């Protein structure tokens, strides 16, 4: 793992098998933040979908690093293929920083180079079975040339040399003094050290940059971990280094992956002696002749499993999985196991998110993508998973039970997995339920002994189940000790303690005294999930397993049950099919953290699981809250093995026998701290606070910390955020609302029993566990009653008794009956509860003495018709009066509305007056304003006006008008393309639902609609139409409709020149150049086009620039100086000489060279010295180089002093002043040596005449010319 300091700039080296890669971590490439940003994904779960109905797209939420839109595990062919036309037995690969791939093409004895575009060329040749290849930071390529027993180096220019070795053996030493035995692989680390898998010697060797060879590890054939020579290997096939300098080895014949520290300590990472393809952890997995090995930046290891034709992956936890391949020899692109390989020999990690694979048997280089998304199993039919985005979509076509799907996201910095639970049902899932919103018509005035009309609540929120809120019943259990399964009260328990609920509302009970885990369906059917009833710690399925006094339990989203097996000091797991295993704990009393099997507990009391699968355990006697991760690591979150009640963080906090646990809505852990008589809260990072209880024993209600408890052992939350507490030794169920007020919810303090009924009259006996299901019910494991109790949390409540004779129905909220006594006006608070929350309303009720009834008068409007005031009963004859005739009058016994306001209406039937208040609401005054999306436009363009209505009512009518004429549709917006400048737009609003005085009209809106114009441009030459070369010429531009801020782009022959302005001056012209200008109106409106191109003007140059060249000779021998001279028509100029169109020489009218070749073409380009681009190219001169075959060499001469042919004269050698002439006798003795041949040989040796004979000559002309040799006869 790389440790990068935030905000710093870093140079990071990544080394893989045969790979050296450097890059600077800048924000645009690989920032420190991005490096640490593995994905962090989650889905909304669970999901319940109805069959045959398209689902809403389910997308992952990613709080971490971005995930590339690629398909994880997709295999493609990068280069080559089974036809063998490109490669022949490729064995190893490496990659440089530019993405070029180098291939050890063994059977072709070549090193090939593959560009990122897949173009293959020969980089170097002349090897003898090159098996390994690696590259260093300088671009030097190292080759394990196996049959040569040498490590060779190829420079970036392609020069090949022996770096070390060259003979068979295992001798350490420097360079050629060292020896190797069939070296099979090489790798380079950041320091430039080369590591060699010396296959035949079964050693791992190291070569320093200076070429010094040492043995890092191994002692010959065998298998042993250890330090340096204490370790042994069997055909180590590949080496690889990571960023920390560790070396990884594919130990082929041992079927293992090994690791060597920089100090030489050898360990085994994965695999065992058995050949196979088993996935698993570490040495439980198997390989079959593993060959290539590579490591990515976060420590995942990839293996070319040659014998299995698979690509395997070893994650940082040591888990071995199959990444790609079908475990059969084949050649197929595809995804994961749908792809096929033929003895893959090497792998290479590319930092861009893919693997390179040397597919040896298929003679191909393959690519595997290692970023994107995966899912662990097939979704229900009709649903699809997009591996590039992680999106689940489609239409389910078949019913599917609740199933957990593990989705994993990968990027180059790591991976993230999450679980989404999906169920497909036969019918649509129930709609999301809102809390109730209730109201009553109030106030109500009733008469004694007169039956009232039933008063029902109006509910505009979520429905309220018809349950008697707070009713306590016995859900299961006989009330006596037993272990019988059965329905409801026919079943029996023995000290039921922990209690939990699953997603289907099944209840699970830790039946402590029976050593069993029991299940109760929503219908009340009790069965045994696991446990034989005999104390023990046997794993197994169902009743074949055993527990010892299980105390707490929880259920995860997948239906797995986790049990605090207190008497065994273990945490056990029960799968949905009943298989029981030990999840954590050694079985010994202790307080050790560590791996699951090494950790220890002391009477674990309760356990809960979060959405990520992490367990939290109340370690009762250890007085700690423990944490168990999904990887089996046990740690202490809070507390210390010492009794106390201190708040604080981690071990600075203390508990005294912590018991029941639950989560609040924020993911905090709520703890029933039993012996401290407190309720505590623990944050996910271990911060402990006290949220309820004063620490003394008692049953006092009150604010959170003013209340007290007596050994609380169970806690749970309902949907409204109320916390319920099993107050065990008080035999009470307590409730703390979100504001922190603690009340007694059910039971009678200090009264124990098994009494059902209303919550405040019911009795419990040592309630232990407590849980709320998803249907609004509370379940309590009533330990000493040996029963499971149920309390309904849905229905209605009223805060005080109604007047005598009236009845409140707590299942419907209806008030009915016949009042029997008078009662003053009283407010009654009624609360409705459903599974999503609660809602309250107040109703005011008055009961008067017997007589007539005059109910409240509903509010009226100015549009209300005359109506009966509403008195009933009594004598049946009523008189009415109005206290405010400006509001209402009485007309023929009816109320007639006059104006807005209030008036007291008095009714009297002769027994006395009664009054009610009439409220008349005024007219609703609507208003409307309109505004356009633009106040000016171009003729024909769309303009939209939007109306904003105030008091428009439920279904208003809009009438748009243009210049007083109707236009548009009945809509709050109006769009037109036919408006003209000066048009007046209005909109009339009519409120169709309220009491108003008529339509209203908006403000006037006007528009300016401008016509379109076309820009144009004319240019002229104001200097002269004909000038000498290099003379300034000025052009001017005159625009039409150019706008307020036009821009100009001058062009010569279509190429942009000059500056942004209407004037352009330049002296850089050739004869016939065409000058134009492009006008851009950037700020104008209503344009047919933004740009206009001017008329063209041709430039006439009277004396154009020209150049000619001459040569001192055009036919010469190689190496002979040739002088070229250039003559320009205009001066001063800059000269550029060229040979075969490549620049040579300096800026001079003369160019002298001795390096020409036959057929070379020499030219000269001149440019005006002013720096402008006017130029001319000379005539070409072709050079002929005479071949050495033209050198006439005599085969005999007669040095007898007669003045004829006395010297061995070779005139042509005068053209080769650096030649070397050697003459030998028949015995190979050098007789004559001359550098240059200015003085021909006279037939003498050391001043003495040589005898007549035949002599042998060798003439080295120098350069690349071949040597000349032959025989010469000396005749006297």
Automatic annotation (TrEMBL):
NHL repeat copies, ranges = 81-117, 127-157, 493-523, 547-577
Single GO molecular function: calcium ion binding
PROSITE patterns referenced in this protein's UniProt entry, alphabetically: IG_LIKE, NHL
For this record, the Gene Ontology CC terms, alphabetical, are:
membrane
The record's section on CDD domains has: NHL_like_1
* Chaperone in keyword set: no
Keywords associated with the record: Repeat, Signal
This protein's record includes keyword Hydrolase: no
Concerning SUPFAM superfamilies, the annotation shows:
Cadherin-like (SSF49313), Calcium-dependent phosphotriesterase (SSF63829), Invasin/intimin cell-adhesion fragments (SSF49373), NHL repeat (SSF101898), YWTD domain (SSF63825)
Q: Which residues form the signal peptide?
A: 1-36
Q: Where does the Ig-like domain start and stop, copy by copy?
A: 926-1008
- The name under which this protein is listed is Gliding motility-associated C-terminal domain-containing protein
């Amino acid at each position: 793992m790389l440790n990068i300091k935030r905000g710093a700039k870093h140079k990071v080296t990544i080394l893989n098998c045969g790979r050296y890669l450097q890059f600077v971590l800048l924000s645009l490439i690989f920032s420190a933040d991005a490096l640490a940003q593995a994905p962090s994904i989650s889905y909304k779960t669970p999901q319940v979908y109805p069959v045959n109905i398209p689902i809403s797209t389910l997308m992952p939420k990613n709080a971490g690093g971005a995930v590339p839109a690629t398909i994880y595990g997709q295999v493609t062919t990068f280069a080559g293929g089974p036809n063998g036309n490109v490669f022949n037995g490729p064995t190893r690969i490496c990659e440089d920083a530019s993405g070029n791939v180098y291939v050890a093409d063994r059977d072709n004895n070549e090193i090939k180079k593959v560009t990122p575009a897949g173009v293959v060329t020969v980089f170097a040749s002349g090897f003898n079975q090159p098996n390994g290849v690696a590259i260093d930071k300088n671009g030097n390529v190292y080759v394990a040339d196996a049959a040569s027993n040498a490590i060779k180096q190829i420079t970036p220019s392609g020069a090949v040399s022996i770096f070390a070795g060259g003979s068979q053996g295992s001798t350490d030493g420097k360079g050629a003094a060292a020896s190797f035995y069939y070296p099979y692989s090489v790798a380079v680390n950041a320091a430039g050290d080369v590591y060699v898998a010396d296959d035949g010697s079964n050693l791992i060797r190291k070569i320093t940059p200076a070429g010094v060879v040492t043995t890092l590890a191994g002692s010959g054939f065998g298998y042993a971990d250890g330090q340096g020579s204490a370790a042994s290997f069997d055909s180590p096939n590949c080496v690889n280094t990571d960023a920390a300098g560790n070396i990884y080895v594919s130990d082929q014949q041992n079927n293992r992956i090994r690791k060597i520290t920089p100090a030489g300590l050898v360990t085994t990472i994965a695999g065992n002696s058995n050949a196979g393809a088993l996935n698993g952890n570490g040495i439980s997995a198997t390989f079959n002749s593993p060959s290539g090995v590579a490591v990515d930046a976060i420590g995942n290891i990839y293996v070319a499993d040659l014998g299995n034709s698979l690509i395997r992956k070893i994650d940082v936890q040591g888990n071995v999985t199959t990444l790609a391949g079908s475990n059969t020899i084949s050649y197929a692109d595809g995804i994961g196991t749908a792809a096929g390989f033929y003895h893959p020999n090497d792998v290479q990690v590319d930092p861009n998110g893919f693997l390179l694979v040397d597919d040896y048997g298929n003679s191909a280089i393959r690519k595997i993508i290692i970023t994107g998304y995966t899912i662990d199993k097939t979704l229900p039919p009709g649903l699809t998973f997009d591996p590039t985005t992680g999106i689940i979509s489609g239409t389910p076509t078949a019913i599917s039970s609740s199933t957990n799907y593990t989705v994993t996201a990968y990027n180059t910095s790591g991976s993230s997995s999450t679980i989404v639970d999906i169920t497909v049902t036969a019918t649509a899932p129930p709609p999301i339920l809102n809390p109730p919103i209730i109201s009553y018509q109030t106030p109500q005035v009733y008469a004694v002994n007169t039956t009232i009309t039933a008063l029902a609540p109006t509910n505009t929120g979520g429905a309220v189940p018809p349950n008697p809120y707070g009713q306590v019943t016995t859900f299961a259990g006989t009330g006596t000790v037993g272990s019988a399964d059965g329905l409801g009260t026919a079943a029996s328990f023995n000290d039921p303690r922990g209690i939990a609920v699953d997603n289907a509302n099944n209840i699970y009970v830790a039946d402590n005294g029976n050593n069993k885990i029991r299940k109760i369906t929503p219908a009340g059917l009790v069965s045994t999930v696991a446990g034989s009833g005999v104390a023990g710690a046997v794993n197994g399925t169902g009743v074949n397993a055993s527990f010892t006094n299980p105390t707490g339990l929880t259920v995860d989203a997948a239906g797995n049950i986790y049990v605090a097996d207190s008497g065994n000091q273990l945490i056990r797991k029960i799968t949905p099919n009943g298989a029981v295993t030990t999840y954590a704990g050694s079985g010994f009393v202790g307080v050790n953290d560590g791996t699951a099997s090494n950790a220890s507990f002391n009477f674990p009391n309760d356990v809960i699981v979060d959405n990520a699968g992490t367990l939290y355990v109340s370690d009762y006697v250890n007085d700690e809250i423990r944490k168990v991760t999904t990887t089996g690591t046990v740690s202490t979150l809070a507390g210390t093995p010492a009794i106390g009640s201190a708040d604080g963080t981690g071990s600075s906090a203390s508990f005294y026998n912590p018991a029941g646990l639950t989560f609040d809505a924020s993911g905090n852990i709520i703890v029933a701290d039993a012996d401290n008589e407190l309720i505590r809260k623990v944050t996910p990072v271990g911060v402990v606070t006290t949220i309820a209880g004063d620490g003394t024993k008692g049953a006092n209600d009150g604010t959170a910390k003013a209340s007290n408890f007596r050994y609380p052992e169970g806690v749970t939350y309902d949907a409204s955020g109320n916390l319920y507490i099993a107050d065990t030794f008080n035999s009470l169920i307590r409730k703390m609302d979100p504001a922190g007020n603690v009340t007694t919810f059910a039971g009678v303090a200090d009264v124990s029993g098994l009494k059902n009924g209303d919550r405040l009259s019911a009795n419990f006996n040592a309630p232990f566990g407590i849980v709320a299901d998803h249907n609004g019910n509370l379940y309590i494991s009533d330990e000493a009653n040996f029963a499971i109790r149920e309390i309904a949390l849905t229905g209605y409540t009223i805060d005080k008794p109604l007047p005598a004779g009236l009845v409140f129905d707590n299942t419907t909220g209806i008030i009915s009956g016949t009042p029997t006594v008078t009662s003053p006006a009283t407010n009654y608070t009624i609360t409705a509860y459903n599974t999503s929350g609660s809602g309250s309303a107040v109703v005011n009720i008055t009961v008067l003495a017997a007589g007539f009834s005059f109910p409240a008068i509903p509010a009226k409007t100015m549009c209300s018709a005359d109506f009966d005031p509403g008195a009933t009963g009594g004598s049946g004859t009523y008189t009415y009066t109005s206290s405010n005739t400006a509001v209402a009058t009485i007309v023929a016994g009816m109320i007639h509305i006059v104006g807005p306001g209030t008036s007291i209406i008095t009714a009297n039937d002769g027994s006395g007056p009664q009054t009610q208040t009439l409220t008349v609401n005024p007219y609703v005054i609507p208003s409307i304003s309109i505004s356009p999306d633009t106040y000016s436009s171009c003729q024909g363009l769309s303009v939209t006006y939007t109306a904003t209505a105030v008091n428009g009512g439920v279904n208003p009518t809009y009438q748009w008008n243009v210049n007083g004429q109707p236009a548009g549709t009945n809509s709050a917006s109006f769009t037109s393309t036919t408006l003209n400048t000066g048009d007046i737009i209005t909109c009339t609003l009519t409120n169709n639902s309220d009491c108003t005085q008529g339509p209203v009209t908006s403000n006037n809106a006007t528009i300016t609609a401008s016509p379109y114009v076309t820009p144009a441009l004319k240019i002229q030459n104001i200097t002269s139409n004909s000038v000498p070369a290099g003379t300034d010429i000025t052009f001017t531009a005159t625009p039409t409709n150019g706008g307020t801020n036009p821009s100009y782009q001058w062009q010569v022959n279509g190429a942009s020149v000059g500056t942004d302005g209407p004037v352009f001056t330049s002296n850089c012209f050739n004869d016939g150049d065409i000058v134009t200008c492009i006008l851009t109106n950037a700020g104008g409106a209503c344009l047919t086009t933004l740009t206009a191109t001017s008329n063209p003007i041709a430039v006439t140059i009277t004396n154009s620039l020209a150049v000619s060249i001459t040569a001192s000779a055009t036919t010469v021998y190689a190496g002979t100086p040739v002088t070229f001279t250039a003559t320009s028509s205009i001066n001063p100029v800059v000269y550029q000489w060229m040979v075969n169109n490549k620049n040579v020489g300096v800026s001079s009218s003369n160019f002298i060279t001795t390096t020409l070749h036959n057929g070379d073409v020499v030219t000269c380009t001149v440019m005006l010295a002013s720096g402008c681009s006017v130029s001319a190219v000379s005539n070409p001169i072709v050079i002929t180089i005479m071949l050495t075959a033209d050198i006439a060499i005599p085969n005999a001469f007669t040095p007898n002093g007669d003045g004829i042919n006395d010297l061995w004269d070779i005139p042509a050698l005068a053209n080769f002043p650096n030649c070397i002439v050697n003459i030998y006798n028949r015995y190979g003795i050098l007789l004559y040596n001359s550098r240059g041949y200015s003085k021909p040989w006279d037939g003498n040796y050391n001043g003495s005449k040589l005898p007549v004979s035949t002599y042998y000559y060798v003439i080295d002309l120098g350069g690349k010319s071949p040597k000349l040799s032959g025989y010469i006869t000396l005749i006297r």
